[in-house]
Amino acid sequence: MANKKFLFLVFFSILWALRAQNELNPAASIIEKTCQKYNTLSTFSLDFKATVEKDKKISQTMKGVLVVKKEKYLITFEDQIIANDGKTIWNYQKDIHEVSLFEAEDDDFLIFHPTTMLNRWADDYTAKFIREEEIQKKNMIIVDLTPRKNSSFYKIRLFIEKNSSYIQKIMMFNKDETTISYIITKFTPNTTISDTQFIFNKNDYPHVQVNDMR
User: Fold this and answer.
1) In Å, what is the CA distance from 44 to each residue of 50, 67, 115, 185?
2) Range of the domain at 182
């Protein structure tokens, strides 16, 4: 009986500490609300524009499309396709006509999967509320995520629309002093998406070189 009482007190103390932490850190409740919004979606797709900047000069711009269905995702750029079907990641480079296959747990592209990144934020990042700001007639909440573990970037900045709780822009600040910005130009929730979109089919890429790194 004493052991049960002790475990109850420990559990209650943990819940109280987590609640107090969230109350002291407004960024936590903001991210949790955004996370809940994405988790209610069966699927979503979005178009985005990406820019790479260094020394206040844009060195590269590109457009892409992201499709998400629960843990699965597909990213399409002009010269690259990346997909995760829940078991395997495949990364296709159009210019050299090669595809590399990896285990899903070795995913270095989770920044492209908002739901997974948000669901794991408390384990992977510390969060800080920066400010509210009106951008293009939208009320934005700006939150910074700092990785807990060593990473090629030292900060991710999220621009979250206050009314919808959806992310409108992501900025990655890399240690090599480059900044990559992803601006969402179109968002479509709960669209019909087939599971086959996330699976690499060699027949769709005749004579492709396959590098199986699994």
Assistant:
1) 19, 6, 10, 14
2) 27-77+111-195
